[in-house]
Design goal:
transport, single chain, transmembrane helix, 72% helix, 13 helices, ABC_transporter_permease
Length: 290
């Protein structure tokens, strides 16, 4: 009987396991395998390279530039979008007029296609007719070449990302806030706890499961940006806005070096795994599940 139950359980899991293997584990193993070979030349098969592709990566200045850009991009966009999302969720969760319309307004950027968002912000950043430079002109400030200046290209991408993702993360925080037990807050109010104390000692700890979920998604999003870069900067100027995944795309589909792209992908996967372990290892201890 136990054997039949065991067999039935594995048969139920088989479709999900097959999909997981087909679209996650097998591609990952194949990528690692291809990273150990030189690119095929004509009809000749791939030649084993060992760790030469990884040594070449360590000497690649563009890789280090893209990695540095991506780390700064994540360090700015992840906490900024999360804090803004929580602030918006706390606001629209209160009893204010036009609450439904305000929630829709905050969530609207998330519903827009990514290419459409990039084209909208491309107009905002346009040096001659862009909205931002027009506003600066009203105050007598000279316009900025937002996407063509090495000092402004990456911050411009960060601003657009925060605008788009904060509304998406707000929905999760809003759902979590509405699920909190109000009796806890009533009891704290009777004890004379201030609003700030209740937020710090009640709301934030109770929202930690949601915060972990949002953090993991925000970090993943920070390392998988391609389409916005393709429309706005293409990694320029002078790789000032180039990010890891876009550099992988360039090597695979512009430079036709799939093996070096596989090498970069392995490094990116290893980084994401380490970040996930760090997130779950640190935050899991601070989470109070109900």
């Amino acid at each position: 009987m136990k054997r039949l139950s065991w067999l039935h359980a594995w048969l139920m899991l088989l479709p999900a396991l097959a999909m997981l293997m087909a679209f996650t584990h097998i591609p990952a193993l194949t990528t690692i395998w291809h990273s150990l070979f030189y690119p095929a030349r004509g009809s000749e098969p791939e030649e084993f390279a060992g760790l030469d592709n990884y040594r070449m990566m360590l000497d690649d200045d563009v890789f280090w530039q893209a990695l540095n850009n991506n780390l700064w991009y994540a360090l700015v966009t992840v906490p900024a979008s999360m804090v803004l999302a929580l602030a918006m969720a706390l606001w629209v969760n209160g009893k204010i007029r036009g609450r439904s319309a305000l929630r829709l307004a905050y969530f609207t950027p998330t519903m827009l296609p990514m290419i459409a968002v990039a084209n909208i912000w491309l107009f905002f950043y346009s040096p001659e007719i862009g909205l931002f430079n027009k506003v600066l002109g009203w105050f007598g400030v000279a316009g900025i070449n937002w996407l063509g200046d090495t000092d402004w290209a990456l911050p411009s991408l960060m601003l657009m990302t925060i605008w788009k993702e904060a509304g998406f993360f707000m929905i999760f925080y809003l759902a979590a806030l509405q699920a909190l037990d109000r009796d806890i807050y009533d009891a704290a109010a009777l004890e004379g706890a201030s609003r700030w104390y209740r937020f710090r000692r009640l709301t934030l700890p109770l929202l930690m499961p949601t915060t972990l979920f949002v953090l993991v998604n925000a970090v993943l999003n920070a390392f998988k940006l391609v389409d916005h870069l393709f429309i706005l900067t293409k990694g320029g100027p002078n790789n000032a806005s180039n990010l890891l995944l876009y550099y992988i795309y360039e090597n695979a589909f512009s430079f036709f070096d799939a093996n070096y792209a596989a090498t970069l992908t392995v490094v990116l996967l290893a980084m994401l795994i380490l970040l996930a372990l760090l997130q779950f290892g640190v935050l899991e201890r601070r989470i109070h599940y109900r």
